Amino acid sequence: MKRMKIFAPGTVANLGCGFDVMGLTLDGVGDVLEVGVEPDAEGLSVRNESGVSLPADLEANVVTPALRALLAAYARPVRVEVAILRKIVPGSGIGSSAASSAAAVYGVNELLGRPFSPERLVEFAMQGEALLGGVAHADNVGPALLGGVVLIRGYEPFDIVRLPVPDNFFYAVVHPDIVVSTKEARAVLPREIPLTQAVRQWGNVGGLVAGFALRDVSLIGRSMHDAVVEPYRKGFIPDYDQLKDSVLAQGALAMNIAGSGPSVFALASDYAAAERIVAVMKRHFADRGIGSRTYAGRVSNAGARVVES
Ligand code: HSE
Questions:
Q1: How do residues 101-125 score in pLDDT, each as one tens digit?
Q2: By alpha-carbon position, which residue is closest to atom 4 of ligand 1?
Q3: Which CATH number fits domain 170-298: 3.40.140.10, 3.20.20.70, 3.40.50.720, 3.30.70.890?
Q4: Is the previous residue joined to 262 through a cis bond, with omega within 30 degrees of 0?
Q5: How far is it, in rounded angstroms, from Cα 8 to Cα 63?
Q6: What is the pLDDT of residues 139-189, one digit of tens each?
Q7: Exposed end of the chain (fewer CB within 10 Å): N or C?
Q8: Does the annotation mark 182 as catalytic?
Q9: Global model pTM greater than 0.85
Q10: Among the atoms of ligand 1, which is closest to the Cα of residue 229?
Q11: Does the N-terminal peptide bond of residue 157 adopt cis geometry, omega within 30 degrees of 0?
């Protein structure tokens, strides 16, 4: 059996206004999987050696639907073995499930001699997201595979665009010890929104995309507002508005909920500001008796990759 170790990074989905259609790649945090393939054989196994608690049942692991989608499209017998070696804590809001799905399909594609394009791999990997939230969205698996900032222009047909990340661009993320399931965070959202809200939202999405394309960090910051989702989800995060005021006072360009939460992220144009921001975030939750993990680093242009063959 041929084997490879693959790293896939953590990601932040939505970026405020881009619910289900935008995401970016974090540097320095992610999953490592060892992937093995044996052509002309059958079977799929997923072992968890990460030390992080994951469902033992193969059918309950996000990697399974992602790999099944790839294998169905490949349409030749292949045995696949996956060992999850390092794992972002599930439920963190920084693309834990996406990192595993992305690494798994990336590894199998490499070992099979790259029969599929990176965009096609995104379509396979997003089947893992459907297992958790009921909807196959690509705003985490897209950046986890492709790197940088990703816009999903459309799902039917699937149309994904990768945008460059400005060099002077840093993230601060806090993962408080609160449990918010993606399913629950999606259930609170309205099915329909008023036109006035929609107008505000598409103005901001346009501004965000223009900001990345023009490498204009100030425009990115001004556009990262969410008129649709944040008002419903911020109730899951204690004193969210107060946190936002403190984070913006430290020089953040913007702050919002990372994916479906409970993590919160902010963007900054220098690393010192990102470090100040994570300190403020940690204190915010500590003052309320809630522990947290924080991450600060550069927004990355690099997606899934081989770390050892
Ligand atoms: N776009 C998704 C959501 C990301 O906000 O529900 C979470 O997986």
A1: 999 999 999 999 999 999 999 999 9
A2: 259
A3: 3.30.70.890
A4: yes
A5: 13
A6: 999 999 999 999 999 999 999 999 988 878 999 999 999 988 888 899 999
A7: C
A8: yes
A9: yes
A10: 5
A11: yes
